[in-house]
């Protein structure tokens, strides 16, 4: 349970860190789980913590002068689209993760794609439609893209609302499904093949994960529902690893991210990798991929969270 009251340990020799989690986005439950894990991890490192849920507490009421740094575990909404980051900068509060501009770009799949294209990175052709657009017009505009197509909310994480349209008749339903989570829906070809995710701390690449799921799409159910399991593999050929590492680094550079991020890719049956998106505030739940990648590198969650906080403080000192 996340509490709105601050929880300080006067005897701690570590830092005092505010952990922001919860919020009002569709990813609230995932965020609360991430936040709970982060609290335990930071406390294991000897830090004092303050658990803050912006949905239950006005950030203007927080005594920020008592806090050394803010750990952002808010997924979706204002916690991931740059609004919170800009507010914390105005308050002069050091925080984990990317800055406002990078978060804004990463939150929008279409904006990210445009940056990838500018950087000459491989990403799929796409169509952006409004959730309320006429279904027949959407079908007509999507005719230039090869089916099957995948529809997803433009600004949403955890694969919420993602669905595959095998033919034009299925597309309106998939767009409507995605439109429940965002005002705009991104449509792009579905890549049949393999799925990978690359976690980075700054520009340091952690072990790369391949996700194998019977669903074909690593959607919300495959990620978080116990009755819909998936397999995560970390043993990849060295040449493939180098290719994915380079793409992930360049993707992060194109958006200007910092801290912990996760880059998602698909590889088609011909062996061509395609950038899908970058997550600027990856999940830190028990089943999340970023902590699994860190663990493969010998970094447990307490060490990971401690490092992210100290990195953001070091960056603040440089500014």
Care to give the gist of this entry?
This protein is an alpha+beta fold and 319 residues long. It has ten helices and 13 strands. The strands form three sheets. Strands 8, 9, 10, 11, 12 and 13 form a six-stranded antiparallel sheet that branches. A four-stranded antiparallel sheet has the order 4-7-5-6, with helices on one face.
Give the helices and strands, then pairings.
Layout: E1 16-20, H1 28-44, E2 48-52, E3 69-72, H2 83-90, H3 100-107, H4 109-118, E4 127-130, H5 135-141, E5 149-153, E6 163-165, H6 171-179, E7 184-189, E8 193-201, E9 204-205, E10 209-213, H7 220-224, E11 230-233, H8 238-255, E12 260-268, E13 273-279, H9 289-296, H10 301-318
Parallel strand pairs: 1-2, 1-3
Antiparallel strand pairs: 4-7, 5-6, 5-7, 8-9, 8-10, 8-12, 10-11, 12-13
Helix pairs in contact: 1-10, 3-4
Can you tell me about this structure?
The protein has 319 residues and is α+β, with helices and mostly antiparallel strands. It has three domains: 16-96 and 301-308, 3-Layer(aba) Sandwich (Rossmann fold), CATH 3.40.50.20; 105-122 and 192-280, ATP-grasp fold, B domain (D-amino Acid Aminotransferase, Chain A, domain 1), CATH 3.30.470.20; 127-189, Dna Ligase, domain 1 (2-Layer Sandwich), CATH 3.30.1490. It is built from ten helices and 13 strands. Helix 1 crosses helix 10 (301-318) and helix 3 packs across helix 4. The protein starts with 15 loop residues before the first strand and ends with a helix. The model has no long low-confidence stretch (mean pLDDT 91).
